[in-house]
Design goal:
Layout: H1 20-38, H2 40-54, H3 59-63, H4 72-78, H5 84-95, E1 110-118, E2 121-127, H6 131-149, E3 157-161, E4 168-169, E5 175-177, H7 179-184, H8 187-190, H9 204-207, H10 212-225, E6 230-237, H11 238-261, H12 271-280, H13 285-295, H14 303-307, E7 313-317, H15 326-333, E8 338-339, E9 342-344, E10 349-352, E11 365-367, E12 373-379, E13 381-382, E14 388-389, H16 397-401, E15 404-405, E16 414-420, E17 428-440, E18 443-451, E19 454-456, E20 463-464, H17 465-476, E21 484-494, E22 501-510, H18 518-531, H19 534-541, E23 550-554, H20 558-568, H21 585-593, E24 595-600, H22 612-617
Parallel strand pairs: 1-5, 3-6, 6-7, 7-8, 22-23
Antiparallel strand pairs: 1-2, 4-5, 9-10, 10-11, 11-18, 12-15, 12-16, 13-14, 16-17, 17-18, 19-20, 21-22, 23-24
Helix pairs in contact: 1-6, 10-11, 10-12, 11-13, 17-18
Bound molecules: adenosine monophosphate (AMP).
The site of adenosine monophosphate has 17 residues, from strand 1, strand 9, strand 17 and strand 18.
């Protein structure tokens, strides 16, 4: 297998970064991509053999009778394709402190809490120490690729809004936290050697500050203060970047005061943040005046290019549900390129975009064959007013064996991604649907199509149709004592507000003339929110990345009009079902034109870090 490039060796740099050794490192990284994609089939076979030989004695594989075999054929014959629910007993044992070799021969170092949920709680992905190296490797490939399209990025800084989230301990004492929190707190990030490509405006202390207000404030302050050095800006997801701009809209006067006087607002109480920021900040009245003048203008169109004039692109994920934020980003940036660099998950990091300046709608990710062993389940998606998947939840023996290997996928076909990882997931269904857009050598490049079953998403929350249905049912119970009932509903992820929020359109039938008090509908909003999973509730309570849920009551007959519209567009009248989520602008407009009243959740739902069952055990 081609070696990973050694691009973390500081001695290869001089301090300006613009030298031949930087070129050498870039070349090495690109050569690595060339090599692993050209030999994708061999690399994949070797990755599988390596994983299976390491884990020859783990309980899970022994139970399935793999008997130490490391070849693809036997593996596909005896090891089943699984979902998180299938692995939950094993995961629970690990969480409860069983340190035996259940899934992996190496010690589980921590759990990564995925934004996917199971039973309303975040999924727990076991991980091992060496996975951090694999993640770092993928990160180290991004800038050499970017450098081919936008040279000179080593001459300035990146303004990235990066945050950590709360962490919890499992009853067995393992830390459980999101993958990025784990990465930012690791020595791979904190002690990274000087590298012009990971030279950020935010000092580590501001990123590692657990208080989200202080973290955001100090990162924005440092970004504004170093405005002319900034060559690229970004966050992980588009929603996070827009949140930072909204924060700026609310707080620019305070920030400018700090820049003018070279002091830090007393609300920033974290001493390590204060110390780190004060090392950078000096009084700069001219810059403060400039920022005040720009922020004080009526229009914020192009504010990014006005405040950070040397910015070449915005580095944020706008594929998948995040595409809803593209118009807002275009407005704030005067149409700067939106760059989606990588595709990753808590289970494993997968791949990167080799053509980063392409349009968001054309983004494809090349899966790096050394990250894990990939398989693909062909899916036939029916799109239209109701999107559905023709694949059952359970696969029969033949389907289990007939998954397609990385190098055998077909151009244009859609697949569900299935991975076998070094950390102990075997033939695990990630839940993402990908479409083959092309090939880099032998390795396919995939468009991200969607997350299976997810109907609503604003930030990292993912709400599926069943969850929505249950939540709406719980809430509609509040109407019963008024002799009213819910006749139809649908939903919409409204990203025109910041933060975005969920909207439910309700058509109700009343058998009494007495009106239902607004407080009842507000209770309905809150009941829906209380019924949602912990990722949604965390977004509302802790991250403040989701706004209060809104119920819009529509006039009676609205859902009939919706059907008429769908049939008029070619939907079959026999098969028509009201969509449980709408995205298509003319339909949203139609629904909005029928709204007779609207109500918001009056407060945040309940949420606490950690899983419900662990809290109960404390
Ligand atoms: P998590 O496990 O919480 O880290 O979430 C991982 C999921 O986020 C993936 O399985 C995808 O559904 C989604 N995701 C990650 N990267 C991208 C991307 N570049 N474009 C679209 N969706 C993504």
């Amino acid at each position: 297998m081609p070696e990973a490039p050694e691009i973390n060796n500081v001695s290869e740099y001089d301090c300006c970064g613009s030298n031949s050794s930087l070129d050498g490192k870039n070349k090495k990284a690109l050569q690595f991509i060339e090599d692993v994609t050209s030999n994708a089939d061999e690399v994949q076979r070797r990755v599988l053999a390596e994983i299976l030989s390491h884990s020859a004695h783990v309980e899970y594989l022994q139970r399935h009778g793999l008997n130490g075999c490391t070849d693809q054929e036997t593996f596909k014959k005896v090891v089943p394709v699984v979902t998180y629910e299938d692995l939950k007993p094993e995961i629970d044992r690990i969480a409860n402190g069983d340190a035996s070799q259940i899934l992996c021969s190496q010690p589980i170092s921590e759990f990564l809490t995925s934004s996917g949920t199971s039973g309303g709680e975040r999924k727990l992905m076991p991980t091992i120490e060496e996975e951090l190296e694999r993640r770092s490797l993928l990160y180290s490939l991004l800038m050499p690729v970017m450098n081919q399209c936008v040279p000179g990025l080593d001459k300035g800084k990146g303004m990235y809004f990066l945050f950590i989230k709360s962490e919890a301990k499992t009853p067995g004492g393992l830390v459980a936290r999101p993958v990025l929190t784990s990465y930012y707190k690791s020595s791979h990030f904190i002690d990274r050697p000087y590298d012009p490509y990971t030279n950020y405006t935010s000092p580590n202390e501001t990123i590692l500050c657990p208080d989200s207000y202080q973290s955001m404030y100090s990162q924005l302050l440092c970004g504004l203060y170093q405005n002319t050095q900034v060559l690229r800006v970004g966050a992980v997801f588009a929603s996070g970047f827009i949140r930072a701009l909204k924060f700026l809209e609310k707080n620019w006067l305070l920030l400018c005061n700090d820049i003018r006087s070279g002091t830090l607002d007393p609300k920033i109480t974290d001493s390590s943040v204060r110390e780190a920021v004060m090392k950078i900040l000096e009084p700069n009245p001219g810059l403060a005046d400039f920022i005040e003048a720009e922020c004080g203008k009526d229009s914020w169109s192009g504010i990014i290019t006005r405040l950070w004039p040397n910015t070449k692109y915005i580095d944020v994920i706008v594929t998948g549900t995040m595409s809803q934020y593209i118009p807002t980003l275009d407005y704030y940036s005067n149409g700067l390129p939106l760059v989606c660099t990588m595709y990753a998950s808590s289970e494993c990091y997968f791949g990167l975009n080799l053509n980063p300046l392409c349009k968001p709608s054309e983004v494809s990710y090349t899966l790096i064959p050394t990250m894990c062993y990939y398989e693909f389940l062909p899916v036939n998606r029916k799109s239209g007013f109701n999107e559905s998947f023709s694949k059952p939840v359970f696969l029969n023996d033949k389907e289990n064996q007939d998954l397609v290997d990385l190098v055998d996928v077909k151009l244009g076909q859609e697949y569900e991604l299935i991975v076998t990882t070094y950390a102990g997931l075997y033939r695990y269904r990630v839940g993402d649907i990908l479409r083959v857009a092309g090939f880099k050598n032998k390795a396919p490049q995939f468009n991200f199509v969607c997350r299976k079953n997810v109907v609503l998403s604003i930030d990292s929350d993912k709400t599926d149709e069943v969850e929505l249905q249950n939540a709406v049912k719980n809430a509609a119970n509040n109407l019963l004592s008024f002799d009213a009932s819910l006749t139809e509903y649908t939903s919409y992820a409204d990203s025109s507000t910041v933060p975005g929020h969920y909207v439910l359109y309700w058509e109700i039938s009343l058998s009494r003339a007495t009106p239902i008090p607004p407080s009842v509908f507000e209770d309905c909003c809150l009941t829906v929110e209380e019924s949602f999973n912990s990722v949604y509730r965390q977004g509302r309570v802790s991250d403040k990345s989701i706004g209060p849920l809104e119920i819009k009551i529509v006039e009676s007959g609205t859902f009939d009009s919706l059907m008429d519209y769908a049939v008029g567009q070619g939907a079959s009248i026999n098969q028509y079902k009201a969509p449980r989520c709408v995205k298509y602008a003319p339909i949203v407009e139609l629904l909005n034109s029928k709204v007779v009243a609207n109500y918001f959740s009056p407060k945040c739902p309940k949420w606490a870090p950690g899983h419900k069952q662990w809290l109960a055990e404390d």
